[in-house]
Design brief:
Keywords: Activator, DNA-binding, Methyltransferase, Transcription, Transcription regulation, Transferase. It is built from nine helices and six strands. By secondary structure, the protein is of the alpha+beta class. The N terminus and C terminus are likely disordered.
Length: about 230
């Protein structure tokens, strides 16, 4: 990696491929959404895997989650995706790819507090546009998709792990056990305990890591019920 000073406004002309932490001046530009720094550097957020222009109006990230790149190609090469809102590549991200990014985030963050607002923040789009586009392409709303994935994952854990029902509920982002039980029964027709009894592996049961038994899965879940 390398970088050089350009002497203008106390900022750097960034030249590196792997990304580095933002300097004080770059961070000030990010916080201020300063368009004067557009194309002089791009910043990426490690938690969302999205990169933006300095002028992006998305939610201010944590500074320790930010990496700065000198070129669009460097950010893409490091595995970051272009922001839907500020379009740092100059091109509009296809809706299908955008929605895929959102579903991938949901799938890997089921334990988090997921909402329309949080999804719009991580996807860098408005709540209305994100909701409408997601439903058009997925056939269900984002909230329905989240609930569907949570119940499906809960079914997998109940059938394939030795985790208790309280632990399973927490693992899928539904820590309120009575609510989890009611929702699970509404979707599957069984309580979590009944579902576990009916779907346990035929092999001797032992306390397995929740990431094991990838071949074991819950029964189908109708997200359209939500």
């Amino acid at each position: 990696m390398r970088n050089s000073e350009n002497g203008q406004n106390g900022s750097r002309s960034v030249q590196f491929a792997d990304g580095i932490p933002a300097s004080d001046r770059q961070w000030e530009a990010i916080v201020a959404c300063d368009a004067a720094f557009n194309d002089r550097f791009f910043y990426a957020v490690k938690t969302t895997r999205i990169f933006c222009r300095p002028s992006c109006k998305s939610k201010e990230p944590r500074r320790d989650h930010v990496l700065v790149f000198g070129k669009v190609g460097d950010a893409i090469g490091a595995g970051f995706r272009a922001c839907k809102r500020c379009k740092p590549t100059g091109e509009r991200l296809p809706d299908q790819e955008w929605v895929h990014q959102i579903t991938a985030y949901i799938d890997s963050h089921l334990q988090d507090d997921l909402s329309l607002e949080s999804l719009s923040q991580i996807s860098h789009g408005s709540v209305f546009h994100m909701h409408r586009t997601f439903k058009r392409l997925q056939g269900v709303t984002p909230i329905a998709y989240i609930q569907n994935r949570r119940i499906a994952e809960a079914g997998r854990l109940l059938a394939c792990s030795g985790l208790g029902i309280t632990e399973v509920a927490a693992k899928v982002g539904l820590p309120n056990v009575p609510y989890f039980t009611t929702l699970f029964k509404r979707v599957t027709g069984r309580t979590p305990a009944e579902y576990r009894t009916a779907n346990l592996n035929s092999e001797p049961r032992e306390r397995k890591d929740e990431h094991e038994s990838s071949e074991c899965s819950a029964g189908p879940v109708d997200a359209g019920r939500y």
